[in-house]
Amino acid sequence: MPPVIEVTSLHKRYGDKVAVDDVSFTVEQGEIFGILGPNGAGKTTTVECVEGLRTPDGGTVSVLGLDPLRDHLELTRRLGVQLQAGSLPESLRVGEALELYGSFYPDPADWRVLLDDLGLPAKATYAALSGGQKQRLSIALALIGNPDIAVLDELTTGLDPQARRDTWALIEGVRARGVTIVLVTHFMEEAERLCDRVALIDAGRVVLIDTPAGLADRAQVEQRMQFRPSRPLDDALLAGLPGVTGVTRRGEFVVVTGDDTVVNAVMAVLARNQITAERLRVEQAGLEAAFVQLTRKDPK
Ligand SMILES: Nc1ncnc2c1ncn2[C@@H]1O[C@H](COP(=O)(O)OP(=O)(O)OP(=O)(O)O)[C@@H](O)[C@H]1O
Ligand SMILES: [Mg+2]
Q1: pLDDT, tens digit (0-9, with 9 covering 90-100), for 73-117
Q2: Phi and psi (nearest 5°) for 137?
Q3: Of 91, 122, 241, 297, which has the fewest Cβ atoms less than 10 A away?
């Protein structure tokens, strides 16, 4: 099956300012594809070109085999887009907004079900909604048309932790129905939980595209192990091990940093000295650390 989204050498300027320099990626049918990157990296500009809301200055974009500019009308029926806050009339009620937007589509979702899934009050006016409720409404509006593809830019920004988790479950449910999802996010936990693949974009260019786990691996970020030795331990025994980059003390705990061979090496030294590692904790390198390392302005 051909990819549902194909972006090739996308370039977009605002006046002299290059917002997207050179971005290429494909999104497969049924995938949740994440776009990560620091503020101003060009993520929103990229997805706006996919949505047909902006005209690229170079490169090509194909969505469901359509040209987002030439075939905009057909695409709007098949693409769900999360609207930015503040874009609805203040006096419009939640239920009315969903019903109205649903009427634009040939086969809309049941707005009452969506409203229920997202925990939104049907009768409240837009003006009376909290920031988090407005955000949830924007998600509902992206899904009301039963789209083939949903583009969600900062899906859960402004949501409390419980609402964020509820939204993730909702998105997983949407994907289970076969909807392809493009997710722009600043939350690494969200990307790790939801995305099949992520593109890391920095300064208008794709740094890499990989699974969240693969991305974390590539960054080769440090592992960190912490434990309380059962008997006195000479730190020098650990500091000299290959792969170890640091041995420090935090109260009665020893903290060892280094590459992914460190845990085994340290455990072997402890065993040889009849020391056990009490309350052992190993922190796996996550996507967050990878993100920071891969987009650092001044790499080591
Ligand atoms: N309408 C505009 N006019 C001029 N410059 C713009 C416009 N929109 C975005 N830019 C600039 O283009 C660059 C990319 O912006 P974009 O909004 O695509 O970034 P982003 O990755 O979505 O950032 P964020 O994480 O902050 O949402 C930024 O430097 C931004 O200031
Ligand atoms: Mg943005």
Answers
A1: 999 999 999 866 557 889 999 999 999 999 989 899 999 998 988
A2: -65, -40
A3: 297
